[in-house]
Amino acid sequence: MTSLTARLYSLIAILLGLGLLATGLLLDRDSSRMAARSLEEEGGRELGLLRLSAPLSEIARGNIPAVDAWADRAGLAIGRRVTVIDSTGRVLGDSDVPLDSIQLMENHAGHPEVRAALDTGVGEESRRGWTIRRELFYIAEPLAPRVAGSAGTRAVLRISIPIPQAYAFARRWQRHLWIAVGAVFLAVLAGGYLLGRGLDRRLRTMRRSAESLGQGDLTTRIAVDGHDELGALARVLNSMAERLDSKLTELEKERDRSQAVIGNLSEGVALLARDLTILHANERFWRLVGAERPAGPSLPRLAAARQPILEDIVREAIRNGTAVRREASIYVEDRQEHEVAVAPAREGSTGDWLLTIRDLQPERAMANLRREFVANVSHELKTPLTSIQGYAETLLQGALEDEANRGRFVQTIRDQAVRLEAIVEDLLELADLDRPDAALDPKNWDLAEVVRDMAAGFEETAARRGLKLDLAIRPGLRAYFDRTRVETALRNLLDNAIKYTDSGSVRISAEAGPAAIRVSVVDTGRGIPPQHLPRVFERFYRVDHARTRATGGTGLGLSIVKHAIELHGGRVGVESAPGRGSNFWFEIPANGSPVKG
């Protein structure tokens, strides 16, 4: 048992033993008193009966033979020793002493029970009788004589009861009492031991469960095996564990969400102490500084990033107690420009500091892309506008009268206006696809029907160029897509295939995969050199500038195809080689889910 239950058990055993011992002693004393009182009552009754038959006249005359004979008869009748003593202490008769020995008996005037009987009317005494050598209880009462002239002379009638005999019942009762006390003590001791063992087992189980909870195992539950205080305590601990488990789960989810947010930031973020210890940093931070996250349980210092400029900026912010933001060069494989910001982690506190690193390369690349796009748009618009302006000025300067050339001039102006309109329409289409809120209206369409309808619009154009337009697509191939967007992509692919194929055929096919449908437009044209393949879907990118302008292309068609398909969660691609034609394809999800690359 545990020390607590052992101490409780020992204390209960001691208190119980003392209590039962005290109770036994009290009952034993009371039984002795009851036995003595019983002797007194019994002796008094017997003395009363003997007084009725006592030979008072013989006693008064001191007739020892007569009195002794009566004493013998009385003693035999009641089974007691009967003694008659006169007022001087002389024994006149004794049922246990022969007649010839009566006069040899000692004077009883000094015996306490005799004196008390003569003085108070009743005398009692317990002592060992030397005559019969037994422990006796003596009770004596005075006898008044009935003979004339003897008034005032009194004798004492005494009986003796053997104490062992008188106390036999009391001693049996006491023996039974002590046996009962011992049995009760042992039973309570055994019951207390069993109860203590059960209590000890429950306390040990509760302690092990509490230790598990303290070590962080909040799934531990304590068995509730009763409705007592320990059962109530177990229920309270289980309820506390459930609340802690629920709260810890919420905190872990919140931590995971926070780490997911921080981990997916495009900026590198690090939480620093005032001594430049890195308390936490996301993976992007270590990638931007070009260092590995230090292993081991100890927290790294900012020096582990191996970028002294960061330490200088952080120390400046800590020294001034204010936020600092500046551009800085970080050297990893080469020089890279970043924006570094340092600010207090909590407003109004200068304990921890938040270091943020933002790579300026994507932003500047986007700015360059915008400038390039504006330049390309300006160039593409300027070419037809210059032609329109030049021929219009020529006409205004007198060419209207030149019947041989004015028709050609006007036709050129019209062609350039059509080209300008195509560029503007493609730019508007691309701008619409580029919008973050660009919407789709997907429905369950028969892709074979959409392809057939689109191919029908190009049959005449293909025929004029001497090309064969083939369809290899089975009916009933259905998918969820925005028909307008897919038709735009098909239109641009077919238009490019027919424009850049001088002879042969253009073939349109569709195949259903496990999760997507692939549509391919295969031509027998000149093909594309390998170095151009990665960029053919970029805006205004042309493989052959002269041929593109000759055929009226804007350089935006394939970019429109890419954006329209990616808006569906699909993907595009090209397979081509010089002299072997090209295969432009796109995939759209069959069930509306994004296509995995």
Q: What is the molecular shape?
A: rod-shaped
Q: Note the gap between the termini.
A: 67 Å
pLDDT under 50 segments (min length 5)? 146-152
Structural class of the secondary structure composition?
alpha+beta
* Order of neighbouring strands in the sheet with most strands: 2-1-5-4-3
Give the number of DSSP strands. Answer: 17
**Fraction of residues in helices?**
40-55%
Radius of gyration: 63 Å
Q: Averaged pLDDT, please?
A: 81
Note the main sheet.
5 strands, antiparallel
Strand content: 15-25%
User: How many DSSP helices?
Assistant: 16
Could you walk me through the main structural features you see in this protein, from its secondary elements to its overall organization?
By secondary structure, the protein is an alpha+beta fold. It is built from 16 helices and 17 strands. The strands form four sheets. The chain has a five-stranded antiparallel β-sheet. Strands 7-6-10-9-8 form a five-stranded antiparallel β-sheet. Helix 6 (168-214) runs parallel beside helix 7 (229-263), helix 10 packs antiparallel against helix 11 and helix 12 (447-456) packs across helix 14. The chain is rod-shaped. Residues 146-152 have low confidence and may be disordered.
